[in-house]
Amino acid sequence: MQLQPNIIFIVEIIGTIAFASSGAMVAVRKRLDLFGIIVLGVITAVGGGMLRDLMIGNIPPNMFRNPVYVLAAFLTVLVLFLLFRCWPFLLGSRYIEGYEKIMNILDAIGLGAFTVIGIDTGVEAGYGDYHFLIIFLGVITGIGGGILRDIMAGETPYVLKKHIYACASIAGACLYVVLLQVTRSDSAMIGSALLVVAIRILASHFRWDLPGIDMD
Amino acid sequence: MQLQPNIIFIVEIIGTIAFASSGAMVAVRKRLDLFGIIVLGVITAVGGGMLRDLMIGNIPPNMFRNPVYVLAAFLTVLVLFLLFRCWPFLLGSRYIEGYEKIMNILDAIGLGAFTVIGIDTGVEAGYGDYHFLIIFLGVITGIGGGILRDIMAGETPYVLKKHIYACASIAGACLYVVLLQVTRSDSAMIGSALLVVAIRILASHFRWDLPGIDMD
Amino acid sequence: MQLQPNIIFIVEIIGTIAFASSGAMVAVRKRLDLFGIIVLGVITAVGGGMLRDLMIGNIPPNMFRNPVYVLAAFLTVLVLFLLFRCWPFLLGSRYIEGYEKIMNILDAIGLGAFTVIGIDTGVEAGYGDYHFLIIFLGVITGIGGGILRDIMAGETPYVLKKHIYACASIAGACLYVVLLQVTRSDSAMIGSALLVVAIRILASHFRWDLPGIDMD
Asked: Transmembrane region positions (chains A, B, C) (predicted)?
């Protein structure tokens, strides 16, 4: 089975849109102005890949060599801004709930896609034998943008606090690296990405949480 | 017209002093001790150039190869510290207002100079055809230090919240990149830097703001 | 005198454990879950070296080429998590005070070791003549992990606020760079590391503080 590059690209753009939307929503809630909304939206969408590229010396980072992802994130944020600017009541309405449910699923798809793409980037850069490194590259591609978003917004990163968002990415990354030892095929890539999506959505639905420490 | 390197250097030092001063003032208001004041002052002054150099693999970053900027920032901070330590009443007096007005203008000059210098650095590193990248390099050189300052001080970055500080830098960067397609001359550089200064000062004077979203 | 590589390695592991513990304690106090505790613990332990490697283009950073430090940090955090999860009363007991006193000393040892190792890394990468750079590399190796920990935890970095933690590292780094002009020997390394440890412990014991500015 040979995966069409087109399909990978479409999935990447879906993830970019979902991530940009999550960044824009954080910015709107922090009452940032248009520039802040754009920056948080774009950095959420492409920040993870930028951190990955810095770690392995992919200079300049891919977001600059191939600005289509930045553009997609920018347009997403602009549309959201115009929507909420013209009809601010949308933010408080029942529509927003439906919107966030859809975005939650697209976000999961993005997390899965970015995780396996991050690993592929590491393998192509010649680090296929550094298993810990490429797992890290996959996970940072998936969750790095959200971490940058939260640091810039002055909040404790979401992935440190809630649910098993990052664990979904880690599980898929580990599966993909194990599968890569056997075969470098599209089915390995798709299967691993789907594992991320499945864990992410199930965790969100059943409100899975990691154990913490009860200090009281 | 051939711009003297001396003039560029003097403008850079002016910007360095103004940026270091803004970092030191944030640190003083956060009641940090001498070390914190030095770190925030220096990082505000040279942090933007450091981020730029990391993005394009200028290793080690220019701040280390040419420590005169770090030294200028350090001395600025030290003088401010001694002033406010010996005469703390200065911080509450009417002098501080005049001081901040002057620094506001020097800061605008620094923003303009750093923006065009950041673009020149990208062009010299061979990325002249990556227009999005070099605009980003110019802007990050201009505003990156302030972002690092605010993240380290635990505040939402100023550029995300207020006025059109960053937009001034973006406008000048875009103008300079457009002009560079036609001519690589000092007048292009100066004109673009002056555009930044003008927007920055006018925005500050007339309290221009970008639109936000009214959630109430 | 020829220092056994084993001894350096043991000291590094001691520092890694102490730094990971400090990261985990911050995470526990912020009520982060298991993932957050692991991330803050690991990033505190290896984040300084990662920043150092990025600055000088050591790609990929050493933490990925030699994951034993990440593993040591991970195990430390896991043991702490299980301890506090099973016996949460430990966190409020008199045991925790004794534990933190011991960790304070190990942390000082780690700070000393990481500072001189950071400088050695810079010298080995060919930057021995960039004195400001290698001092910075030593200090960032020592305190960078703690800065990343505090930024991710949403707090003003500890080193900016308190005591002369960073100054101990700076003093030792300067001494080591001066000594390196004369001799590249293990005694220079050990002496400089011990200076860091001594200042760090004395400052902590006598509550030395840097001067600040009294705004009231």
From this structure: 6-27, 34-56, 68-90, 102-119, 131-152, 164-182, 188-206
